[in-house]
Amino acid sequence: MLSSSSPHSPRLPQSALDAAWDPSLDTDDTDEYCWTELQLASRNGDLEKVTRILASADPDSIDALVNAPPSGYYGQTALQAASMRGHADVVALLLSAGADVNAPGGNNHQRTALQFACGAGDLPVVHALIAAGAQVNPPAIARYHGRTALQAAAERGHEAVAALLLDLGAEVNAPPSPTAGVSALQAAAAGRHLGAARLLLGRGADINAPACKMKGFTALQAACVHGDEALVEVLLAAGADVNAPGSVFNGGTALHAAAQNGHLALVRRLLAVGADVNSGAGRSGQTPLQSAAASGHGEVVEVLRQAGARGPTGGGKIFFLLR
């Protein structure tokens, strides 16, 4: 193995990552599932080892060492790894050694250190990164699990972090990643974070931001999946479109979501505010009636029939498999 001072930044095999990732993954793929020694020490919060690695490095190669790029879909830079896990002392040391605070993450998440820290809800690390020049609104997120800092905070219900970001100018309606992204409000709704949703609405969040094309959902659809009546009421009061279409894969309206998941009270509430009982969803034109029947919710089927639902109960499939 190369020394820690090598400008080529030695990489450790998956077996050294103490089961950080799925142990069934093919460990022979050293490009995809390997971390540098510094990245691993930073991830583990091993301040003593991080200090030793940096102290023994050739000054001419310190930048390459500290800023070694993430490997593969799930990799992280040393700073990202420490930031995600709240290792504030390691974060401070890496920043003092020249870590790039705005470096992009691995291909799948593509998150910066700030985006990781906001997702973790770690205010001290968030403050440290912002003080070091972290961009609150970095360039558009393009990858599958990409999130802006605000979206990441909202997704986990970290209201204090979200409020800080908004005060610093975070775009409340920043577009989501194109495949499976969510707006900040959609993220809060999917996580059933009522306080975060109220905060975002108070700061101008678009209540009817469309569902991301492939695997997205509106805020109201997400709340209906979970049967969160309090959140649904807040969203309806803010003007949520009860008949907004879903995405290609999630594919239904809010009524489809409530019917599929057997939330009888919400089904009645949505019908009362104008939900289309015969709305077709997806390429098959599946109705809420079929959604309820496919999930075995007989009582919902009866309520929909009484409300004027037409057509067969068979042939339905399950929509709205939220992550």
Provide an overview of this structure.
- Helix 14 (254-260) runs antiparallel to helix 15.
- The protein has helices at residues 37-43, 47-56, 62-66, 78-84, 88-96, 113-120, 123-131, 149-155, 159-167, 184-190, 194-202, 219-226, 229-237, 254-260, 264-272, 288-294, 298-306, and strands at 11-12, 35-36.
- With 323 residues, it is an all-alpha fold.
- The relative contact order is 0.07.
- It has a two-stranded antiparallel ribbon.
- Residues 1-27 have low confidence and may be disordered.
- Helix content is 42%, strand content 1%.
- It is elongated, with a radius of gyration of 23 Å.
- The protein has 3 domains: 9-135, Alpha Horseshoe (Serine Threonine Protein Phosphatase 5, Tetratricopeptide repeat), CATH 1.25.40.20; 148-206, Alpha Horseshoe (Serine Threonine Protein Phosphatase 5, Tetratricopeptide repeat), CATH 1.25.40.20; 211-323, Serine Threonine Protein Phosphatase 5, Tetratricopeptide repeat (Alpha Horseshoe), CATH 1.25.40.20.
- It has 17 helices and 2 strands.
Keyword list:
Ankyrin_rpt-contain_sf, Ankyrin repeat-containing protein, elongated, disordered N terminus, 17 helices, Serine Threonine Protein Phosphatase 5, Tetratricopeptide repeat, ubiquitin-protein transferase activity, two-stranded antiparallel sheet, mainly alpha
Write the layout of secondary structure elements.
Layout: E1 11-12, E2 35-36, H1 37-43, H2 47-56, H3 62-66, H4 78-84, H5 88-96, H6 113-120, H7 123-131, H8 149-155, H9 159-167, H10 184-190, H11 194-202, H12 219-226, H13 229-237, H14 254-260, H15 264-272, H16 288-294, H17 298-306
GO molecular function: ubiquitin-protein transferase activity
ANK repeats: 74-106, 109-137, 145-177, 180-212, 215-247, 250-282, 284-309
Pfam family, one: Ank
